Description:
Layout: H1 13-57, E1 68-72, E2 75-83, E3 89-97
Amino acid sequence: MPLRIEILDDTGSVTAELAVVLPSVMAILGLALGALGLQIDRLRLVEQATQDARAASRGEQLHLAAAEVFDSGDLVCVRLARQTPFGFSLGDTECARKEGS
């Protein structure tokens, strides 16, 4: 007859399972928070580009050195770009109708 060992005590199994799962949960949480931070940066960039496009359409001087202003027919467009801490850039282009058009 084969030797059969029965373990009647499962003390510590929850701790072991938690030790295996917890790093994965933390990694997923970190990625989610990083993605949320990038989305917030992108929304701020869009808001800034929109305000700058409206100001440029009124003929006001822009104070951002990184803003690229160009005309597109009866529109004035502003292109902004920003480097992220993760090593890639976010960019947005917003346009507004020229004042008096």
